[in-house]
Amino acid sequence: MKEIKIGILGFGTVGAGVVEGLQKNGALVAGRTGIKPVVAKIADLDTTTDRGIVVPEGVLIPDAMAVISDESIDLIVELIGGTTIARTFVLEALKQGKPVITANKALLAEHGVELYKVAQENRTGIYYEAAVGGGIPILRSQRAGLIGNRIESIYGILNGTCNYILTRMEREGLPFDEILADAQKLGYAETPPDLDIDGIDTAHKTVVLASMAYGAPVPMSAVSAKGIRGLSGEEIANADALGYRIKLLAIIEENEGKIELSVEPTLVPKNHMTALVNDSFNAVFVKGDLVGDTMYYGRGAGRLPTASAVIGDIMEAAADKVHGVGTPVGITMMLQKDELEYCAAGDIEKRCYIRLAQGDLEAAAAILEKHGIGMASVEETTSVILTQRAKESSFVAAMAELGDAVRLRIEDFEEKG
Ligand code: HSE
């Protein structure tokens, strides 16, 4: 049987999960594919911490460059994270013609165009399923099953940490920081977790999904992103009373050739499927022009779900190498156009939930009217206004006059005419 020798860079939560997954299911995978995956070397500066798994003597070393340059190693798995040394190592591996598997959404969102081009020039690939949606094979679905579709919209709950925090705030009423500490213990959160709670991690994943959907590397500056930092239990309780749940929702939508990209805490109707996505689960809703609506659901973070996606990519990269594929479709899809047109943040139309700090509803109504924002309903006891659709720029102008009010997006998932 053909053997494929793997070099892993980074022996943290996911790195250890990949080794554990291959120890458990490596023979199963070999039987299915005819290719035996062998972890030949692992590089991590920390060679002493107990990760709960045993690797043979001499496999774990501190020198990543030595792993990349080892001629016996066929492919490199980058699980270091961050955008500095990870970029150096990925570029070096690609220049040596070695396929790279990565879970690093920040690296792809910030340096994707450079990395995809270097992969193409060297007739090799980057495989990045684990970068979006944890264990959900969403990118594989996009580049395989949905390849015949123009993508009309993608809605996603893409951050396991935030979804876990929101779920427990709603169910248990616990403080934000206490739940975040649990998410860190469970291996869901980034280091530092600010990337999760400020919406940056979701924006990174949004960039990868949109780049693949529309055929050009999308810059981070095109995504209007807010996170869940500072969200209070009061908003969760008010939303609940109004028939909504709050989710950190990514929206990717094409309208008349312009692409809207946004990430923000959003009220979603309790009877919509997004409201049923809880804990560290993620869900991605893709609408294609031929297929219509589709939905993908699974664990969005954590050691073994992410390892599942990495192992899938290892075996795809191994098969591509064995069959001499060269540049895989996951690269060509990203490099079809040089640039795309985006909807400016201020032009994004939405409905909003507004809770006034002082409770002068009449004055607030006058301010909203002045900015052309219609009111759909008013809750006097909680000083909450639900608005009609209006442009983000109108909401920004009205909020400047409303003082300390809280504003959240509402998404009803209705067809826009
Ligand atoms: N910190 C990320 C999350 C990990 O919570 O979703 C998976 O990308």
Spell out the key features of this protein.
417 residues, alpha/beta, Rossmann fold, Alpha-Beta Plaits, 3 domains, six-stranded parallel sheet, elongated
What does this structure look like?
The chain has 417 residues and is of the alpha/beta class. The protein has three domains: 164 residues, 3-Layer(aba) Sandwich (Rossmann fold), CATH 3.40.50.720; 160 residues, Dihydrodipicolinate Reductase, domain 2 (2-Layer Sandwich), CATH 3.30.360; 66 residues, Alpha-Beta Plaits. Strands 7, 8, 9, 10, 11, 12, 13, 14, 15, 16 and 17 form an eleven-stranded mixed beta sheet that branches. It is elongated, with a radius of gyration of 23 Å. The mean pLDDT is 96. Bound molecules: L-homoserine (HSE). The site of L-homoserine (HSE) has 11 residues, from α6. L-homoserine (HSE) binds next to α6.
- At CATH level 3, the topology of the largest domain is Rossmann fold
Radius of gyration: 23 Å
Specify the CATH homologous superfamily of the largest domain.
NAD(P)-binding Rossmann-like Domain
How many DSSP H or I helices?
14
Structural class: alpha/beta
Query: What does the largest sheet look like?
Result: 11 strands, mixed
Per DSSP E runs of 2 or more residues, the count of β-strands stands at 17
Q: Determine and state the CATH class of the largest domain.
A: Alpha Beta
